[in-house]
């Protein structure tokens, strides 16, 4: 179960899933003790890190086309929070003053005292956007069963939307790289296409997938690509025009990858490298091409 909180991702292996035993199958009080490893670790994190009340975020104004070439935009997105690693993530965002998008799991906002605290911090943290990554994360990552019933999937997202009081119906599907932004409709697993269509058409959600995943080791949650390797992948995808939208690239990462200060150095280093590149800029997912228009066309909650 410890692995759900620390190492769970959108692409869990069946063998790993069998190890999770406390998630929702037990009363909530058990979640506090067994899912999040919140005891000594939570206290340690709380003592080490200092989340600011306010911070100035460097959201750059759009470039005038006549002045210089438009920068390529990179959208850093972080899934599965609030989670171990969220504190370190916020500390880095604050220090580097960069925007980021968080796709949150409803259950995680109340799974442990540490996660409750991080949920409180997230709601007022400047320069980030909070969106829906489902309530249950497919109930212990049981993706195959989860995506068989459109109504239950919509209900799961609606539950998260309501409990987190999220304003915009932007979501990311657990375990599936799915896009639904008006004319964009992509699903990595074809057999789930119809249900995910319903999440957009009946549920009213704009769905954001990703172009590139910063992968991690599921045993220790450590990032697999080094910052230089990830940057090389970014450069290649842009150069080869392999992003879904030209000159726009969405990166998927997970909060739990930054649970130790040593691990979080990788994220810090990558963000510094991005900032040093004059041709790149970081942006929020609401600035991704077509998202604002799609929101205007979706049903209102
Ligand atoms: Zn996820």
Automatic annotation (TrEMBL):
One of its GO terms (molecular function) is hydrolase activity, acting on carbon-nitrogen (but not peptide) bonds. Residues 72-283 form the NodB homology domain. This is Peptidoglycan/xylan/chitin deacetylase, PgdA/CDA1 family. It comes from Niabella drilacis (strain DSM 25811 / CCM 8410 / CCUG 62505 / LMG 26954 / E90). GO terms for biological process: carbohydrate metabolic process. Transmembrane segments: none annotated. Pfam families: Polysacc_deac_1.
């Amino acid at each position: 179960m410890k692995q759900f909180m620390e190492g769970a991702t959108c692409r869990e292996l069946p063998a790993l899933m069998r190890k999770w035993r406390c998630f929702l199958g037990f009363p909530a009080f058990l979640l506090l003790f067994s899912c999040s490893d919140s005891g000594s670790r939570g206290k340690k994190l709380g003592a080490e890190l200092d989340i600011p009340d306010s911070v100035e975020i460097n959201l750059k104004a759009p470039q005038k086309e006549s002045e210089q070439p438009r920068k390529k935009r990179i959208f850093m997105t972080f899934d599965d929070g609030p989670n171990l690693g969220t504190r370190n993530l916020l500390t880095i965002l604050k220090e580097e003053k960069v925007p980021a998008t968080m796709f949150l799991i409803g259950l995680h906002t109340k799974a442990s005292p540490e996660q409750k605290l991080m949920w409180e911090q997230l709601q007022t943290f400047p320069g980030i956007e909070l969106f829906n990554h489902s309530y249950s994360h497919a109930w212990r990552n049981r993706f195959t069963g989860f995506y068989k019933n459109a109504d239950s999937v919509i209900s799961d997202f609606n539950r998260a939307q309501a409990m987190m009081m999220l304003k915009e119906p932007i979501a990311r599907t657990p375990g599936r790289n799915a896009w639904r932004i008006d004319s964009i409709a992509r699903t990595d697993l074809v057999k789930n296409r119809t249900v995910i269509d319903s999440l957009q058409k009946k549920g009213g959600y704009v769905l954001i997938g990703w172009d590139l995943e910063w992968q991690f080791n599921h045993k220790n949650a450590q990032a697999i690509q080094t910052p230089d390797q990830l940057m090389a992948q970014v450069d290649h995808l842009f150069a080869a025009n392999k992003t879904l939208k030209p000159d726009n690239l969405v990166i998927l990462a997970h909060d739990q990858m930054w649970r130790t200060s040593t691990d979080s150095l990788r994220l810090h280093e990558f963000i510094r490298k991005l900032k040093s590149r004059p041709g790149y800029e970081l942006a929020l997912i609401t600035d991704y091409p077509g998202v604002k228009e799609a929101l205007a066309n979706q049903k209102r909650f």
